[in-house]
Every structure is written in C-alpha cells, then in structure tokens.
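Hi W.,

Here's what went into the run:
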Amino acid sequence: MPPNPVLSLEGENNVGSFEQVVLPHLDAAYNLARWLTGNDQDAEDMVQEAYLRAFRFFGGFRGGDARAWLLTIVRNTCYTWLQQNRRQELTTEFDEETHSPESNSSSPEALLLQQVDRQMLHQALEELPLRFREVLVLRELEGLSYKEIADVTSIPLGTVMSSLSRARHWLRQSLARGLEKEP
Amino acid sequence: MSCQNTQKLLDGYLDGELDLVRTMEIEGHLRECPVCSELHASHRALRSAIRAGAPYFKSSAGLQRRVRSAVRKIGKAEPAPRAVSWRPPWSWAGVAAALAVVVLLAWRLLPNVGRPSADELLAQDVLSSHIRSLMASHLTDVPSADQHTVKPWFNGKLDFSPPVGDFTDEGFVLVGGRLDYLADRPVAALVYQRRKHFINLFVWPVAGQPDAPERITTRQGYNVLHWTRSGMTYWVASDLSLRELQEFVRLEQNRAPPQASP
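Here's what came out:
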C-alpha cells in the first residue's frame, strides 16, 4: 500500500500546510474570542490556545470549511475558560418574560434604530447574554450560514433561527431602552 | 401566510435561509400587512446598524507572530500527529484486522444487542430530513398543489414514478414535491399541509419486500410512520397529532390503485 502523500507529511511540512489552511482565519478566530471574553488579553490567549489545539487536531480535519472548523475550536476553548473563570455568565438564564410578542409602539422602531451609534451598539452587544451574543457575531459579523452556526455552536439546526430571533429581539429592546433614556 | 407565521420566519427570511416558496409567501404578506411590514423594517434597521456599527476585532501583528511561533515550536517538539497515527507497525495492523473480524462477527451473530435496528436508524434519518426541510434549507423543489404537476416533475430525476395523491377534500393540501436522499438512494418527498402542520411523505421502491402494516414511532415530539405496500415503502413524518396523521396514512393507503411503475 503506497503511503498517502498528503497523510505522510512530516514535521515542517505539516506545519506548513497547517499555516496555509488555518492561519488565514486568524482575524475570525480573534474576533469571536474577543466577543466571547470581552477583552484583548484573554482573547489573545484563547486564540493561541485554540491554534495549538487546532494543530493537534489537524490530522482529523477532513477538508471543507477551515474557518468554521477553527471557530468551533475557538468557541470550545473559550467556553472551557469561561466555565473556569466566568461561571456566572454561562449560567445566566434567559428571561423569557422580556421576550414578549412584538409591541406596536407608536414611534417606528426602524427610525429609532437609525440613531444608534457605534458605542451604544458595542455596549448593547457586550451586555447580551453570551449565547445570544455568540450567534449574532457568527451570523452578522462572520456571515456564517445557519448550518455553519449549528456546527460551530452545537445548537441543533432547527433552533438556530429562533436563537437568532431571540437575540435580535433582545438587542432591539436594549437599544430602544437606551435611546429612550437619551435626552 | 398569517402574521404569526410571518413573524416566526422573519429572521430566516432576512438571513436568506428560507426556500423560495416561503420567501414568496412572506413577501406577499409583507406587501399587505402594515404591522409585519413595520416589524420587517425594524429588523432591517437593526441589521444595518449592526453591520455598520458593530466592531470587528482584528488580530494584531503581535498575535500572528505569537501563534505562528507557538505552532512551529510544537511542530518541532512533537512529531507531526498525522505521521504517527498513519504508520502503524504491520504487526499492529494484523492485530487490528483480527479484532475487526471478531467485532464484525459479533455484530452479525448477535442481532439486536445494543445496536439500533436498520429501521430505527432510518426513522431517525427520515425525521432529520423532515426537520431540515422545514428549517433552513427548503421544503419543496416543485411547489404545486396540482398532482399532475408534481408527479411528472420527478421524471428523469428518479428511476421510479412516485404516487402522488390529492387529498385536498379531506383537508390535506399538497404543497409540492422534493428530491431527497434516504437509505442510500434518491427518493421522492411529497409535502402536504394540514392547517399549520407540514407532512413529509417519503416514497421509494423496495424490490421483493412483503407488504407491512404501518409502524409508529414517536421521537422529539414528531410522529414517524412507516409501511410497505405493493413494492413501495412509505415513511411519513410530521408534528401533526397521531390521530390525524393516521387519517392521512389511511387516505394514502386507500388511494387506488397503487402505481408502482418502474
């Protein structure tokens, strides 16, 4: 049986192909880690840790979308860390009460939302429960499909849409409250 | 489409994750309903706000250097993981092969010991197909309530002609047909709707299998029914109540005569 030329790569070459396939997604990895941890230092540590894990698992990578594959590892690395350092955040219960049916307020929400500035949005996103923040970042900033989001987060495909829906609802409400407080 | 359904699917619509039929239904509804249309506007405004204003954190050059050198370091220290795992000594390979034979024999000789039956596995696949069709991907390839449109659509796509019944009068409206893949082969999926519940009926021929009455399994809140008749096997999945789903099955079974042309 002739050795598979790809599978029998050793040492340097393996690093080479890993760098070629996985390193280009460093920004995506960092962006997700930064949103999950909330600060630069921890995010950088998470990314480095995730890359080392990814390198060890690289033999199991069967091709396909390297970005989604890497993001899955980044996400798991962050969650392990969050479990040790920010248990509180992981166990935040979603308050279903706030997810009431859409109110038909007199001022069109669409107009209100146009006044949202960067800082406000950044803050509102940071204050979202972790699991909501995560799906929004993956969808809106990374542009992942529902299928990819399901793969990365282990949420069943059937509930990706409702998770996103609840996340957006939450964010809209939080922004609307912020705008109302403003003079 | 109702307001409730539209609002439930609005995110999928906005994300471009709905099939064409649903997309068109929602667009139709949005044109007519000011409430949903305003909600849609607010969804879009939120999305624009996020895309324009949410920071995308870029990695620093320092991090890139750090990651690169860390990977190179373990790349040198540890032998590449693939090279090791893919070159077992031949004696090990022999042991592994022997073990594989033993496992295979046990698998063959001890039926139903701790492994799901083929039917159970298939039921899970049927259910997954059903859920997928409702969720992100698509419900139908040929949206039509007309059996004479749906049936010919499968010509050339399948090596059999699926029976397509019309049960509109009994309250099961044909929504369309779809090509699906189950039991290692392309199969016909026919989609029916009762009120707000969708039914996926999967059909494909099974040569030489005797007729079998329907068997019922319930999983994750869905009912899955399965029967074989005149050389065709049928699987039905839906969140409809069992009673109503059985009513549907009865209609399908009494549809005369079964067309099993090859």
